Amino acid sequence: MNLSNTPNLISSHGQDAAPARLRVGITIGLSHPKETLWNNGIKQNAVFLADALKNCPNVDSVVLVNTTDVPITSSLPWDLEIWPTKSFLEAKDQIDVLIELGGQIGAEQTAYIKDRGVRLISYCCGFEYIHMMESVLFSRNMGGGNLFINQRYDDIWMIPQVANCSKAYFEVFRRHDARVVPFVWSPVFLIQKTAAMPFQGLWQVPVSRKGWRLSVMEPNIDVVKFCLYPILIAEMAYRSEPEAINILQVCNTLPMAQKSMEFIALMNQLDIVKNRKSVFLGRYDTPTFLATNTDAVISHQWENPLNYFYLEVCWQGYPLIHNAELISDLGYYYAGNDVEAGAKQLFAAMSDHAYNAAHYVYDQRQQIARFLPNNTDLVASYSALLTEVMARPLR
Question: Which InterPro entries match (predicted)?
Answer without folding.
Answer: DUF2827
